[in-house]
Amino acid sequence: MSAEEAKDQSPSNSEIKIVVVGSGGVGKTAITTRFVKSIFSDEYDPTIEDFYQKQVEVEGHAAILEILDTAGNEQFKMMRDLYLGNSDAYVVVYSIVAQSTFLEVPNLLEDIKRIKPDRKAAPAILVGNKCDLPDSEREVPMEDGKNTALKYDCMFREVSAKANIGITEVFTDLSKNLVIERGKVSGKAKSEGGSGCCTLL
Q1: What is the pLDDT of residue 14?
Q2: Which of 59, 139, 63 lies closest to 95 in space, CA to CA?
């Protein structure tokens, strides 16, 4: 193996493909751009499909996050299996002030479970956005979000893209779980006499 090949297989060059899904208007783009670019816009401009990259440090290793921000309309639903199948990790977003967006969550999580049944190898996080808004506007209790996440074996956070609450943790939580799991598989391959080159897709 050449030095260049060894470099490509190193955990420090890990690429993690993350897809952000949810109903229209829940703040998928706001969450993504807040994390990647540290910016926030109040204007709602329906997304067709946007792709972002950001390098982060996870468990002492550099990882490149490739984040796909998807549309929340019927057109996207036709492409859902393709997007989900090509991703390593999932951010499922709803608005805590819109019950209708939470009702879509089980469908999304069922699709992820069907396409990627191993939650450790393909982690998901359920995200309730707009937690900065007054309790009087809340339509989805935090407990409902927690229970749904527990049912589908995924992580959970309530965040605010506008107030920048919990945004970084959404992506670092996902990345950490995936890097740890990949490390376990890589270590197992080495202990069994393998080359240590493992891909979890």
Answers
A1: 80
A2: 139
